[in-house]
Amino acid sequence: MLKTGLALTLLGILLTFVAVLWTAVKYASGKGKAEWGGVLLIGPIPIAFGSSPKMAIVAMALALALMVLALLLTWYSWRPG
Description:
Layout: H1 2-29, E1 37-42, E2 45-50, H2 53-78
């Protein structure tokens, strides 16, 4: 289990680094515009925010996907055997 956790942590760091570099290059070249969004979870209540309604929806979808992934990984780690 430790190897899986370490691998997922390193993958997350790598993906974050690549995404930041990709966004910076696109923004600096003038071909893209920077948009942002996020989700704040207070108990079971999600609060979405973003620079546009589209980004708020994207943030909600990503938050939902991460919650499902967390539930699946929790279920996988608690399985008997």
